[in-house]
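User: Predict Peptidase U32's structure from this.
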Amino acid sequence: MRKKIEILSPAKNLIQGMAAINAGADAVYIGAPQFGARTNATNSVEDIAEMVRYAHLFKAQVFVVINTILYDDELNQCKKLIHELYDIGVDALIVQDMAIMEMDLPPIVIHASTQANNRDPKHVKFLADAGMKRAVLARELNLDQVREIHEATDIELEFFVSGALCVSFSGNCYMSIAGGERSANRGSCAQNCRLPYQLIDGTGKTLIANSHLLSIKDLDLSDQLPNLIEAGVCSFKIEGRLKDIVYVKNNTSFLRKKLDSFLEVNADKYQKASSGRTFYNFEPEMDRSFNRGYTDYFVNKRKEKIGNWESPKSQGQLIGKVLEVKANGYVIENYEKLNNGDGLYFINANGEADGAQINIIINNIVIPNTFKPLPVGTVIYRNSDAEFNKMVEKENSAVRKIGVKLYFTETVDGFQLKAIDEDGHHNTVSVQAEKVLANSAESVIPNIKKNLAKTGNTPFIVDDIEVEFSGNWFLPISKVNEIRREVLEQLVDIRVKEYHRETFQIQKTDHPYPVQKLDYTYNVSNKLARAFYKRHGVTEIEKAFELQWDPGKARVMTTKYCVKYELGKCARFQRETMGEKLVEPLTLKHGENEYKLKFNCKPCEMEIWEKDAELEFEDEDEQLGWFSK
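Assistant:
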């Protein structure tokens, strides 16, 4: 059997979810009224039900995000919501909190959110054995690690391939709550990682002032799809439940085209995960919608700098350099790509991220609304593409159609039209009509075919038409249109009704959890989660950070991102060129908030601690075994 490969797109709301399906998504993930990790992207159960019906028409799936940690007083409400979601036809839930595995659930498929520490084979295999059907892998994994997980278990693997990156291990970032009592694990991340910081060394010297030192570029693994498929990934996820519709349609369309090209030449092993095909009235380009510049993160291991310290805002598409500065504008390389109303992004003479909006372009001079002096050679990006946005926002910029064959024949007392779609669903409609020969000897069949092919705003496109008459019967075009409209409208209902939803009833197991002691990074915040872990052999369970935070002393983040590496001071990878070592401890400071950095060089990780934490620092050369004490 050929393996299904999926594009999974974000749905902030019903409109954007439908747009993602139209653009070629095989599945969408959407937030419910509660318990999603984006509190600004919630949706009513009624809207989700409509999303389900529309997606299922194309055999696309709908996954609902229930991935916050739960408190005891929320457990019953969460269970009730899950039953409602099952009743409206939702295909799967994406969860973090293991309390859900203890609930009396309907037979709904469960996916493990990336918030659930899906970073190693033992942990992912445990989740599979517990009944989860899919794991959303940690973003920081490389291809070898993905492959190892795939070899350890047959659970479906989902991987982020585009969009914003969490600098922290997902589910293990506590900067937001430590800095202002907004929990990322409760859907209220304050994005402290996107703030400007000072970097101060152990002597008190400010090494870098006012830079976004934890802000990293966005992810683009579009060129890695074949490698990820080979490693075992079956679902390619686009981040962005808070992004606009242009971003969703553009990124979905771009990845759809990329994946279709792969599937076309590997049709013997892989297939598309949903039905229909999309017709585009624009050329998708990921750098023309929101992005902070792109990185492949660690999928090919650590090999480049991934930070974007100038600004956490959109950088956009590279245009070219400033060639000349005029009295009221600039001569820019590739200026012909620009349009009136575009937003420009650049780094100004002070080394700060800055921007301007184009008022008008006269000859080759780009005139902004507000002129800002720029040095010749300044690199210009376009972070708001007015013409592109207008084009993509149109409803017909991406139109999805399901292939159908029509068979028009006569009956004893009239005519009938049979429609068979690309998935084998069929419908037949008959009409009574007196059979009268046409006045002209010219065949009526070409004209009938022409009108049967007019599917208009239906979700169908006619791939083939057969008309078989025993005579050259005259039939009013209005009758042809009526029978075509009726057969296709009914076929829509048939497709939705005959949609097959996979179900799975969770059965409680007692196989051992990979570790016996859980610290706060396992985010255990309720009695059901504690019961789950205890049944699986865990002996010590620390409360979630949100329930026991000791201000000023906690580790608030662990990350594969490394400030030393970004500075060219990594003893492991940049030893020959790093020069003098930095004097530790290094401190990040933003306003009254201060954090200490600790570098664990063997696993190649950086920890961020609150300022009053008592830490022991081991020399990087000792960690790497270059010399001993």
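The longest strand covers residues 398-411.
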